[in-house]
Amino acid sequence: MVRSLWTGATGMNAQQTNVDTIANNLANVNTVGYKAQVAEFKSLLYQTLQTKTTTANGENKPTSSQVGLGTRVASINSLHSQGSLLASESDTAFAIEGDGFFAVTCGDGTVRYTRNGDFNWSLGNGNTMVLCDSEGNPVMDNRGRAIQVNNTYMINRITVSQQGELMYPDANNNPQSMGITIGTFQFQNPAGLERYGDTLWSVSPVSGAAINEATNNNVQRSRIVQGYLEGSNVYVADEMVNLIVAQRAYEMNSKVITTTDSMMDTANNLKR
To answer: Helix, strand, or coil here: 183?
Structure first.
């Protein structure tokens, strides 16, 4: 079988995945807390046509002859760069400046992490109000517990400091600590986190365990900004350039197949 046919086919398959990844980035350009993805490629096996040997005159021929058999997608990596801060009128909108993640408890009891700070207050058990994400998952404090306050508090008067501490005004309208701090967590290798949806992440053996910023002095604490949300880190201009490059690469691999087909047709017609 002609190698170039399969080489061109592998290139088309790889570039199709690349286009899919870019399209997903563009589709989530307005998704709060979304982190862009990038496809990485690797070459397939090489076939040795001639090993290192000597010429007919006995001289050394130090280089071998190898031909590649195509490419494939090696991984799709997430870019955890800081997104731009977008102003929000919500009192429960929080953006993180730094490397931290919020933690939420999902319905199956699994703790997952997010940079999407678009939270809301929800009614809880026992006359309490619980801070939740848009899916209703409770947000965790720095002790690993759901953040909940008594419903006697006026929710719209609660503010949050840059350290994530919930504050409530006293009789003199001076903010006082409520003894609750929004938890922020870091990872040794955030690129190793597994996606769960577009803005939720799960711990994996590659990412390492979550590091609680409140109890670990070896990490630089993140800053929480109330009234802002972190936008996606997708840059449309860059993604459009990447899309053009991927499209051209797809076309070139298609051209390899048509050229090989033309060469095979010419070879078949030599005797005519």
So the answer is: coil
